[in-house]
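Weekly sync notes, structure subgroup
Attendees: PM, AL, DS (notes)

Item 1: joint prediction request from the bench team. They want all two components modeled as one assembly rather than separately. Inputs as received:
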Amino acid sequence: MRIRLVARPEPSRLAKWGSPLVATAAVLAIGFALFSAMGRDPWHALYVFFVEPVDTLYDVGELLLKASPIMLCAIGLAVGYRANVWNIGAEGQLVMGAIFGGGVALAFHGAESPLVLPAMLFAGVAGGMLWAAIPAFLRTRFNANEILVSLMLVYVATLVLSLLVHDAWRDPEGFNFPQSKLFTQSALLPILVQETRLNVGILLALVAVGAGWLFLRRSLVGFQMRVAGLAPAAATYAGISSSRTVWLGMLIGGACAGAAGVGEVAGPVGQLLPVVSPGYGFAAIIVAFVGRLHPVGILFASLLMSLLYLGGEAAQMKLALPSSVTGLFQGTLLLFLLAADVFIHYRLSIVRAPAPAARAA
Amino acid sequence: MPPRLKLSGITKAYPGVVANAGIDLVVVPGEIHAVLGENGAGKSTLMKIIYGAVKPDAGTIAWEGKPVAIANPARARRLGIGMVFQHFSLFETLTTADNIALALEGERAGPSLPARIRDVSAKYGLPLDPDRYVHTMSVGERQRVEIVRCLLQDPRLLIMDEPTSVLTPQAVEKLFGTLRRLADEGCSILYISHKLDEIRALCHKATVLRAGRVTGDCDPRRESSSSLARMMIGGDLPHPQPRTAQPGADALVIRDLTLPADDPFGTTLSAIDLTVRAGEIVGIAGVSGNGQKELLAALSGERLLDDAAAVTILGTPAARLDAGARRALGLGFVPEERLGRGAVPEMSLAENALLTGWRERMVAWGFVRAQTVREYAAETIRDYGVKAGGPDAAARSLSGGNLQKYIVGREIRQRPRVMIAAQPTWGVDVGAAAQIRQALIDLAGSGVAVLVVSEELDELFEICDRLAVIAQGRLSDPKPVADTNAEEIGLLMAGSFIHAGAEGHRAFSPAGVLGLD
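Output from the run, pasted for the record:
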């Protein structure tokens, strides 16, 4: 007896909605076994992982605060991925956005003007786009692989930030720590809900979700980018410029990541540090795919990713689980979610051994 | 002697459609047996069942008198069944020899294989280079790989699915000679086609399918084309309406178009000149792989040229404009590949209308007017008799003929003033093909300049006013159809118009083009 995957003639609607549920059930079962095997009460462990991070208003604020940059980056990446433009460097574009936005904040340090924040956002978006423009140019002009170029530029951006906070932008009163001055009030995003750290960045992320949906599902250019991703020959045939597709895919990704970078330094971080993101730009790649490159899917996937970050920390602190175990558990969940999507386009078929007559002949 | 193959009561149902309903078929040794039917009649499913690619729901198969279960194609090949598919099953990134080796077993795939490929291809007039990569080959060349691959397995039953659509008349004759010789050697041949004349000339017996059932068995040599057609489509063959329009002004002008090949095995286009006037249909005949692909890409805008005046559309030099800009000038284009180029397989018919038709008021302020798009798709489906679930049906869910009707309709409904159609009826059943040809004739009748590139000579003679031939990247002077005939065109296809000594990227060899050496 063998088990085979057979392509479905049409994508299954049932599987489309059911596959995340199947994945969740499987992960809960695995988690149950894993935590039991480690000598923890599995019910308690799962509670710590999934419920405790959201059981107070403050905690919900933390969840949304963490989800915002991931959501922003993932929306921008999904636009490119739909068009087969593989921007892997959202992390670097986020850092560049933080540098540009933070630069504006430092230049107008102490200014009271309400225009400081918009100027930071503008600069941050420009910084992210500039960083994304490098792989776009190299790809369209020299056919250089944008995956490699954008990935390498992550490390360049991180080092540029490190150089700045160690040197030119170091706070003279910062006891020689590599950090900039703390931003003043006019350069910080307003808090959205009192008693939490949640700021208006989440609104920006939600606007991006809506705009991303409109662009991909309703605009001609978004349609043409999907065509370029699904059938490149059809795109050429229809006169859809492949270099425009690459440029748009990279620049939209860079703009969103740059905005996310501003959101971090003007939000929870509040200054420039050598590390402004714990890898949101990379997490966004997973989120984009777990969300099936669909803006609404990404909305949910980024909340899940944020929950996993917080739950993982809580599990380490409260259950004394090693970080590798929480990482393992997070990875299992994401892997299962992606794997379960196979059943949208394929079904399992159990093939019995061929009839004896056929085998004998 | 038992029959080589005997099918009894073969039934196969797919969700929503019964592809084969109780089919009986007997093939005796040395027989060339035609299976005749429109697209969707169940021919392909039946052949896949015989070849082990599809498992029947009911019915039995007897091979040389013994019941067998053909579990997979490898088993079919071991029995001695070879198949040349209409849609080729070749790995593009491998060479001819690699592709053939994959289908062979044991020592037959060994180091002597390239030599044997050369032997067989010479013996049967199917020129092939064993070391060439498949992705560089044209449709016709790929078919040769498939045929040679089957012949190397010494088949006792050879299934051929629409094999002649990519050959010159002379090469068709040569192929028929090959098939007759194979049959005389005792090999049975199942010959799937919709070309009634060919079946009458070649086959000893014909089984006609319609809607999954056998509707007739006959000796095609004793039938007329119209009696075969009646069995096949249940009515008379539609004939194109003649048209009376006089050609008008020059609409598409190709002047001294020269384009180096973009890959080592491509064809270099040399100094191509052609004018298509409003209201006329000009045909380009030729064996595939002689520059059609390159010429079409240069005309559609998928490849740009340096000399803007090499292609002029309605007075505007267009050779440096991309496909979108040429459409804006009034160019319509039906490409050879329907899925993946003419249409996005995963997308709905409505979205595929938007693909090239968005200039038809389908967009406002950059946003798609979904209702307009759906209406355009629904009207195209209705006006062109496309059998589809509706505007939301995915393009890949349509049969080849239906999708082609949809694409042709989509292009025509944009009211182009210059229309280019590549292989408009390749692999399309007679009913749909007649409809597509009629649509092109009507289009020319309404004053549009139409250029048809096709490998089907009958089709070109049926619809064209003038006919030119492409061979080795050069184009012959077009001739009025009334002043020429298939024989002359066949010789032109072999390159007879290319003067010896003319500079060319290949040595001149008409026989090489035709596969006659």
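Discussion: Chain A touches chain B at residues 9-10, 214, 218-221, 223, 226-227, 230-231, 233-234, 236-241, 354-355, 357-358, 361 (CB under 8 Å).
Action: AL to compare against the crosslinking data before next sync.
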